[in-house]
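Letters spell out the chain; backbone shape is given numerically. Take this protein:
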Amino acid sequence: MAVDSCLSSPLGPPACEKDAKALQFIEEMTKNTDSVQEKVLAEILSRNANTEYLQRFKVGGATDRDTFKSKVPVVTYEDLKPYIDRVANGDRSPIFSSHPISEFLTSSGTSAGERKLMPTIADELERRQKLYSLLQPVMNLYVPGLDKGKGLYFLFIKAETKTPGGLVARPVLTSYYKSEQFKTRPYDPSNVYTSPNEAILCVDSFQSMYTQMLCGLLMREEVLRVGAVFASGLLRAIRFLQLNWQQLAHDIATGTLNPRVSDPSIRNCMSKILKPNPELAEFVTKECDGDNWEGIITRIWPNTKYLDVIVTGAMAQYIPTLDYYSGGLPKACTMYASSECYFGLNLKPMCKPSEVCYTIMPNMGYFEFIPHDPANPVQISHDSPPHLVDLADVELGKEYELVITTYAGLCRYRVGDILQVTGFHNSAPQFKFVRRKNVLLSIDSDKTDESELQMAIENATALLRPYDTNLVEYTSFADTKTIPGHYVIYWELLVKDPTNPPSQEVLNQCCLAMEESLNSVYRQCRLADNSIGPLEIRIVKNGTFEELMDYAISRGASINQYKAPRCVNFTPIVELLDSRVVSVHFSPAAPHWTPERRR
């Protein structure tokens, strides 16, 4: 299609007029970052002026930045929890927002072991949809011809629950996939999925994955890109294929659907797609029957141009495995979002994972930044709000903690993400995601911090007391060489009575006791999603942690300030620990989890 020259974009030549308008919108937003931010804050403060939260801080209907910054404190989830609990318990007064709270989005972060509840309103869905609509026009600049095929995306919904007051609580992507915006999305030839909505919307993870994989195999030559939300999710799909290819090949050969897939809507949908294809079944068998899975993605889906997965932050640990299975295909990280707010997009989605940076779109919310310097931390006090940096005023090379104010009523909320400014697109800064604040271990959507790990250790070591055995020291490691990945805990024990040491069974139970103590996101990943494997405890020889200290000191650590690390990922240290292992133990069962929140 010929594109009007006045709609051409500095980002590159758009593929069509619709793309041109999307790219033009990005240019307008990023050229006017500060004025857009000023307008967004004024809109938020104006529409929420009569809410209990803003009135508490005597904002008085003001919509300017200076009043807002001087009166409204910077807060964490724990500060907001009493208000959130009131909404969850049925209070429909305008506490956060003048618009009704439509549902809660459950965060992968936790509070007291349960997912955090983020209030949202109906028109936030439109803002999220707007950001989604910008992704494909940007990708089309770098990968032409995506309208000639399909995307094999492994997309899933998760269990949802209701609060005591009757509001739905569910993950943000579950909310989006179940929305009319997704289910009745307009046809876009460059963004067609192999997975039918019926499979994506099936809450049973086996039936959903099986159907999505089957459709991907049936349409293998049409697939131009393969993806999941997180890198871990795509690797889980490959592992699923390893375990189930024989049944999948049988279904393809016979044109019949595995009876384990019992969902009526899926069976009805697949009856129109699935026809006997012995030749394809033979191909799948030839590729999957054996130990060589190197390059399996490009062997089965030969026209794949890139993988669409998040490989920043904790997901970077999966890059080598993705390279193995894909033959080193490019990995596109397209957007930056959370349950609290959608933030922005990657304007160079085909860059190397180490170079990924996100341009925050100033229309999505009001953004401020706390300078992050571990050596000189900013003191946050409710009595005297600190000076935070505006989006347009961040400095190149510096690190910041992200603070957001949203249309749904979150005001000056600390998200917990540490970002580094890597450049600018027009006047909009571009950020590299550095890490999640305070997170020690993460395999999938789980986030375990030091205090949670410590509590789990204490609960598990209580099982050692009858054996007069103490824990000398411990550390941890997120092992992603296995699929799914799992937590590894290294223990050095002092067994005071060698005639009565803890048995293999007791140490296995210690693994389960740790898992039962971890937060609900971890337990859901273990039990319902199967995205994390059983926790493992590796017992190391006595003196191992002294060796670890000697190694750290030899590399320049201060003997006076040395503390055993609570998490390790530096290869020589992991190798040292593994070389001292005397026994290994695994959790004998999955921990307890239900969708209902603990009361």
About this structure: The radius of gyration is 25 Å. The longest helix spans residues 231-254. The chain has three domains: 17-122+337-436, 147-304, 439-586. Residues 1-7 have pLDDT under 50 and may be disordered.
